[in-house]
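Work Package 3 (structural annotation) set out to generate three-dimensional models for the target panel prioritized at the project kickoff. During this period the team completed the workflow that converts sequence records into C-alpha cells, so that structures can be stored uniformly alongside our sequence database. As a representative example, we reproduce one entry of 191 residues exactly as it appears in the project archive.
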Amino acid sequence: MKKIIYTLLMTVSLTNLCFSQETEFKFTKEGFTDFVVISCEGKTQSELYKKTLDWVSTTYKNPNEVIKAQIENEYIRIEGFKSNMLCIKSLGILNCSDVQYQIEISFKDGRYKFDVTRIEEYSSPSQYSSGGWSDFPINGDIGKAYFKESGEIRSMFKLYPEAFQSTFNGFNKDLESFLKSESIPSKKGDW
C-alpha cells in the first residue's frame, strides 16, 4: 500500500513539474527562458489586450513606432531598444553594447504570455569587423559561448545573466502590475 501511495505521489509531482510554466526569465547554460505565462484572474482576453495597449502607450515614448504588429485581442508585438544593456568586463575595462529586442505578448482569458522573440546586439566597427546589428542567440544551447563545461558562466560574461533577467523580468513585472491595477497610473485626477 505504501508503494502505491508513493508511486501515485511521485507521478503527480512529476506531472506538475513537466507541465508547469515559467513565471520568470532565466539566463542559463541551456539558454534564455523561452517565454513566461502570467495569471491575471478575472480579466478577459479583450481586457488584457486593451490594457496592454495602454501599458505600451505609458511605457514607451513613441508607442506607435514601437508596436510592430497586432491582432485585436490575440497578440501585440513590440520592438524596443535598451542602451548599454550587455556589458563585458575584460582586463578591467567595461565595454557595453546597445540592444534591440522584440517582445510578443499573447492573450487568453485570465492569463497572458510574454515572449522575447528576438534580441540584436550592436557592435561598433573595429579593425576586425564592420560592426552593426547582429542576432544574439537566445534559444538553444548558448552554453558553449558563455558558460564553462562546469556550468559556471565565463568571467567576462558575468554581467549577462543579471542584464537579461532584470531587463525582461522588469518589463514583465511592470506589465503585470499595470494589468492587475484598476487604473492607469499616469492619469491624474487633480487637474
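The helical segments are 2-19, 45-59, 63-66, 143-146, 160-180.
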